[in-house]
Amino acid sequence: MHHLSPSHAPLVVRWMGLLRMRGGLLMTDDDLVCFPTRVDWEMAQPPADLESFPVPLVTSKDGQENAIQHPGPVDDLAAYGVNAGWTCDITYSEGWVPHATTGKPLGPKVLWAVRMVRDGVRAVAVRTGDQWTSLWVIGARWERHETLGAFKEALA
Questions:
Q1: pLDDT for 114-156, tens place per residue?
Q2: How far is 26 from 112, CA to CA, in rounded Å?
Q3: What is the rounded CA–CA span in Å between residue 92 and residue 32?
Q4: For residue 43, what pLDDT is reported?
Q5: What residues does each domain of the chain span?
């Protein structure tokens, strides 16, 4: 059992006798363990053997001087941003991305990011393979865009 704070410790009672259950009575001389909440019970369980997530091959914080050739659409979007008055930076990373439902690593994949700043507003576009997978403008509020056209409108 894991260490629990006194307020989260299970109540262990030595029970000699009968337990009333649906459909009859049960004789037991085992400890009866009661937890205040389900969360307390879950905290007392041994940790699951989770496979560690693979370390990225290249992170966007690594030096980008040896960057592989930028895809044309990434350069095009950066040029569009510069023409609209944004300061742009292109970075890439290579590694595994989590599966949407299972969380298991998929990849490795190369992701490109076009990061833009103008007047305290930030914009980020992420491209994986031949798709733009994330398009955000972050100012007073966060705006997620579904299409590249809508994203470019927000940049104008």
A1: 999 999 999 999 999 899 999 999 998 899 999 999 999 999 8
A2: 63
A3: 56
A4: 73
A5: 6-44, 72-155
pLDDT digits (tens, 9 = 90+) for 10-60: 444 444 444 444 444 445 555 555 656 777 767 777 766 666 788 888 888
Please return the burial class of 114, using the count of CB atoms within 10 Å of its CB with bins 0-12, 13-18 and 19+: buried
Phi first, then psi: give them for residue 7, nearest 5 degrees: -75, -20
Cross-strand bridge partners of residue 105: 98
Q: Which residues contact 16 (CB under 8 A, 6 or more apart)?
A: 29
Which among 114, 148, 115 is positioned nearest to 131, based on CA atoms? 148
Q: Which pLDDT tens digit goes with each residue over 75-111?
A: 999 999 999 999 999 998 899 988 888 888 887 898 9
Residue 83 identity:
N
Report how far residue 86's alpha carbon sits from residue 80's, in angstroms, rounded to the nearest whole number. 9
